Amino acid sequence: MPFIGQLAALGTAVCWGTGANLFAAAGARFGPQALNRLRIAFALVFLATALLVTRGMPWPTWATPFQIGVLALSGLVGYVFGDGFGFVSIVNLGPGRSTLVASLAPLFTVAFAWPLLGERPGPLLLLGMALLLGGLSWVLLERVHETHEEARGKAAIGIFAGVMGAIGQAGGYVLSKIALKTGIDPLSATLIRVTAAMIALWTWALLRRQAGPTIAAARADRGGTAFAAAGAFMGPFLGVTLSLFALTKIEAGTASAITAFFPIVAILIAMRFHHEKVTPRLILGALVAIAGVIVLFLH
To answer: Is residue 184 a contact partner of residue 67, using CB atoms and an 8 Å limit?
Structure first.
């Protein structure tokens, strides 16, 4: 099927954009750290169930030690390191500014993929990334200005955390492709990544005596738990699995750039359900970003 990798990456953006709105609703009830633990737990259940149905086993016993090691490291780098710094950036910069900094992830992905995967960026890839990130930045800067987001910490800390989060996401993505090139399927790879993150996050929560309160909060707020579960289905389960499938078909930089379209998807969904206004700048920025996605499809 033509453009199957690009379509999978675009599907990832749609899933993540949808998940972002669901996580926003859940985060308002639980807080970012508890939400991160809950979403990983739900994602693990979804992934293990899907693997049981499709392959007859809830754990990929066919994975080699090398694949497990690289994917576990990918999960720690992406989910624990990358997302951990991402939450710090959100607290210090607000969601709009932090998302803008996080959009640097495709650039780091290209930088890592060149020496580690031998994927040298060509002119069309660079043009598509420039259009996509330019349109995305223009839209997000308007959102920051209109919403007058208030940061609760220092801007320098938020920017540093956002950059580190973007590096973590890029590093996790490239490590995933190293493992995928050995032949493991995307669903098994996602399960291994999520399992490593689950063990790390919940072990840390147990050491800090936060595991019990997190579970109690989930039981007490069924609505928030439903939002967290739905977000986990769209994000760490379906979205990430699609993103890894995209990695098996196209270059890491191209896949990462297309998935970076997800903030605009998230904004469009929020406008539909929260009745936020459409502005000429939003339309033009979205069109520029879409032009970038088209170039990346043709790349």
So the answer is: yes
Nearest to 285 by CA among 167, 143, 106: 143
Distances (CA, A) of 101 to 31, 95, 142, 143, 288: 21, 10, 14, 14, 19
How many whole angstroms separate alpha carbon 191 and alpha carbon 203?
Answer: 18
Residue 31 CA to residue 55 CA, distance in Å, equals 36
Stated length of the chain: 299
Q: Record the tokens describing residue 16, joined without a space.
A: 């993540």
Write the pLDDT tens digit of every residue in 10-49.
Answer: 999 999 889 888 887 887 788 888 888 999 999 999 999 9
68 to 89, 190, 279: CA distances (angstroms): 30, 11, 47
Backbone angle region of 271, left / alpha / beta, with phi > 0 → left and psi within -120 to 50 → alpha: alpha
pTM of the model: 0.88
